[in-house]
Amino acid sequence: MDIGIGLWCLQSTATSPRSFGQAYRELIEDAQLAETNGIHSLWLSEHHGYYDGYCPALMPAAGAALAATQTIQIGTGVLLLPLHEPQRVANAANLLNEQAPNRFHLGLGMGYRPIEFEIKQQNISQRLQLMNAGLDALKSQTQIPTWVGISSEKAAERAGRRGLGLFISGAFSKEVVNNLIQAHRNAWEKSDPAEDSPPPVGLLRNLWIVDSEAERRQALDWVRSSYLVYAGLGWGADNTGVDFVSQIEASMDEVEKSATVGSAEQIAEELDGYDVDLVVCRIGYDQPPRSALTDVIERIGRELIPLVDSRGGKQ
Amino acid sequence: MRLLLDLRNTKNASQREQLAREADEYGIWGVVVTGPQGAECVEASAIATATRHVVVVVDVDGQGVHPTTLAEEIAVLDQIAERRTMVIFRGPSNSQTTLTTLLRGLPFEGFILSPPPAQASIEVHSVEEIPQVDLPEASAEIAAMIDQYRDSPTAFLIISSNKSIKELARHLIGRAASTDFPQMVADLADQIDPINQ
User: Fold this and answer.
1) Distance between CA atoms of residues A88 and A68, nearest Å
2) Could you say which DSSP state residue B108 is in?
3) Is A272 helix (H, G, I), strand (E, B) or coil?
4) CB-based contact (8 Å) between A18 and chain B?
5) Judging by beta carbons within 10 Å of its beta carbon (0-12, 13-18, 19+), is residue A59 exposed, middle or buried?
6) Residue A315 covered by a domain
7) Deepest of A135, A295, B89, B119, by most Cβ within 10 A of its Cβ?
């Protein structure tokens, strides 16, 4: 099981304002620190037209992170394909792969915010068709490892039928995660695949390594506060079936419940229960001080990864 | 007049990066880079990450792409490049108008860039606005060509050459910037500190 970190969104939020220049400098520093500590990958995330500068252009950001490092993998977790021209995405992905061979991963999602589709003059009701057309186009134009961000069994099945990897959202219970993986696997097997092994599965987890109950409470508060970003993004998004705002406390409780916060040993044991190829430790919150973020990056590399490796999970 | 070193036809990625580093070191004002459509800012981002001072002029193909997407890519590039971005645009004039507006930090039909460009305004030029030349071999001919463009006048000149970056910098930056460049100083410098040693 590979261990990565995410999600780098490069924001300057109302809760933690900062200069964008600092955000992009820290992306480079964090990628270098993660590389030094043996972390498999760093994942970026995309939105458009949001007040806090949430990164709308992942390929140039990935290009910077790859150019500043030698071995770490960089992924998009996820790029919102219906909002882009697929040929341009393929060209950018292929150039990244040429500049940094076998170090770029293309995670793709559909998007859900009406305003983003309005900005790009796309019809949000057509997003599934746009996604499928985009995946078809990419399949013929790039060989980059491709992961599809999903949150439903139907979406997992679609990815499985196409032989594409899964990138599973962070706040699901173990039962839901396992159901999604099974749906993906079953669809892949029924597709009469040419490959011997199923496409990979990546799992995003809200995660933090702590040594005491006080640190645990602090980390859980950071995880809870991260939901504020989503509440803001979801403001006015009435097509998702999720009430982002009015039940904010209940939603934060759900996010907290699904978080993996504990000692490195406890986290390794928890992750051992997932049949996945990659875990992306979601540590890119906007609340923790810089020193706490760099500390947890080091601890993931120094403490968690050796424990996960020693358990001999999925390779 | 500011000189922009053309790296668009340098096929090898590591050679492009090396030339950009040398341009950065020796004070060439800008380097011009591009890539396949959609990958222009990926290439520019790699060059920006490898350099500290040189302006990264990105040549973008705006055909068939939403101008807000281009603007977002360039704004992110400008954050990465820490205010060192300039744009050469190829494409429909209405798209260039939208792009220029957004890269000035202004709203266009209710949309405003977030993040904004790092600099107050990113210059957007059509490809016809900036002359480009392949420099000849003979020093006297190069000098005459630079003088001609400087006095034309033009703010920028894109140059291609097989000469070393240090030689270009020594002989051309001052000439491009000034009407009284003392060529004898550059020639004496060649004797004191030969370029090819």
Assistant:
1) 23
2) B
3) coil
4) no
5) buried
6) no
7) B89
Nearest partner of A274 among A290, A258, A262, A285, judged by Cα: A258
pLDDT digits (tens, 9 = 90+) for A187-245: 999 999 988 899 999 999 999 999 999 999 999 999 988 877 777 777 666 666 666 66
Q: Do A92 and B48 touch (CB under 8 A)?
A: no
Total domain count, chain A: 1
Extents of the domains making up chain B: 34-129
Confirm whether A305 is domain-assigned: yes
Residue A237 to residue A230: CA distance in whole angstroms: 11
Q: Which residues of A touch B45 (CB under 8 A)?
A: 60-61, 63-64, 67
Question: Residue A99: inside a domain, yes or no?
Answer: yes
Residue A109 neighbours by CB distance under 10 Å: 25
What's the CATH code of the domain at A258? 3.20.20.30
Chain B: residues touching A (Cβ < 8 Å): 13, 35-39, 41-46, 48-50, 64-66, 68-69, 72-73, 75-77, 79-80, 82, 111-112, 114-116, 118
Tokens of A221: 């508060």
Encode chain B (197 residues) as per-residue pLDDT tens digits: 999 999 999 999 999 999 999 999 999 999 999 999 999 999 999 999 999 999 999 999 999 999 999 999 999 999 999 999 999 999 999 999 999 999 999 999 999 999 999 999 999 999 999 999 999 999 999 999 999 999 999 999 999 999 999 999 999 999 999 999 999 999 999 999 998 76
Question: ∠ CA A53-A57-A58 to the nearest 5 degrees?
Answer: 110
- Euclidean distance between CA atoms A287 and A252, whole angstroms: 15
Would you state the structure tokens that stand for residue B46, as one six-digit string? 């790699």
State how far the alpha carbon of B194 is from the alpha carbons of A52, A258, B186, B189, in Å: 52, 67, 11, 7
**Domain of A170, in residue numbers:** 2-310
